[in-house]
Amino acid sequence: MVVLDVSVVNVALPAIRSALGFGDADLPWVAGAYTLAFAGFLLLGGRLADLRGSGRVFTAGLALFTVASLAGGLAADPGLLIAARAGQGLGAAVLAPATLTILTARFPEGPRRTRALAIWTAVSLAGGAAGNLVGGALAELLSWRSILLVNVPVGAAAIVLARRLPAGERREGRLDLPGAATATAGLALLAYGLTRAAPHGWGDPVTAGALAAAALLLAAFALVETRSAAVPLLPPHLLRLRAVTAGNAVMLLTGACFQVPMWYFLTLYMQDVLHFSALATGLGFLPHTLLMMIVGLRVTPALMRRTDDRTLIVAGALAAAAGFLWQGTATAASGYATGVLGPAVLVSAGGGLLNTPLTTTVTSGVAAADAGAAAGLMNTAKQAGGALGLAALTAATAGRGGTGRALATTCGHAFLIMAGALVAVAALALALPARRDAAAARGGTPPARRDAA
What we know:
Elements: H1 4-7, H2 13-20, H3 29-52, H4 54-73, H5 78-106, H6 111-141, H7 144-149, H8 151-162, H9 177-200, H10 205-227, H11 242-258, H12 261-273, H13 278-284, H14 286-304, H15 309-327, H16 335-363, H17 371-396, H18 404-429, H19 437-441, H20 447-450
Helix pairs in contact: 3-4, 3-5, 3-9, 3-17, 4-5, 4-8, 5-6, 5-17, 6-13, 6-14, 6-16, 9-10, 9-17, 11-16, 11-17, 11-18, 12-18, 14-16, 15-16, 15-18
């Protein structure tokens, strides 16, 4: 639900505008309010799981997300819908790090944790790819309200199942409120500035002001974390682990290709160049989802017992780069088979190869007391990468054309830039410490600890 709701409303925006009387300037906030709150509160949500117990925080985030979904589905005016979407984003920011914290606390490093993280990654991939499919199907068959209301029975069932989870250990210490305030405000302004940059440009005064304020607040956050008497939101010693620092840099750059931009430009290509309907576009994404899940669930965990994570990340990034390079050559005459399906094989195989090793590396060598902080940081890097990537790519391709053959060229340029970014991912991944499941399973010292920067 958390990942699906990032994109599920996109195909229903015209219907929402007509039903609630949204103006053109306000309509983007139906999607933006969710991503803004989600990105802004992830660090806080991760640390709450450490201090208040991951099971308790998971259930609270799930309840908030479900109630906000109900409020959004029943909203009668634009303000209520935007507020409900922000409430969903806040619930998601609490829920997402807690899910990862529960897994890393339950499974020690080694093949069993890798298997758990492979399933976690596959579910996230399925949610991201299913957003347009589910949104298109529900919008065409029922109404735009069903896109939000469908979360209510799913969330209620999940809350019942969540009672089986251990509550988690409550730890002594005060939450770092100054750090929470500066980090949340800084990340929210960063997400707002990046979101606004796409339609208004980097020179827009509001965009520039938001990004400048974000930089100041994040600098203040860094200062607070080194001097806080409370439990820091992002412990400085966590950043001394090379797996965490280099891994999150790789995660940021990977998110700038996979997290949002790939789905965005593929949607444009299929709907406005190949003239697919919303439902057909959603179905067009199925090969990406299925292949990435098969590789991630079946192939990658087995390879991780025999091959360093770093090697798999490099190989996956280069395979995906080749796929985006192919995708970048697609024209209006290419059709679905050669314009989407062929590149999807390489892109999805590469994504399936690199996602689980990268998630495992970023969370390796982290003490149990900091598992939530590490999960919040990883999710923040991924979400910020998606927002930054989309803003940068839309700015880089602005003015290249907006319909038919010209739009195919625009999308092609975006995919070529993604290919270059993934080559950079492969190069940056060489800075990661070597790690293999077989070594972790024998009970050795996690490489991330030995290779602390």
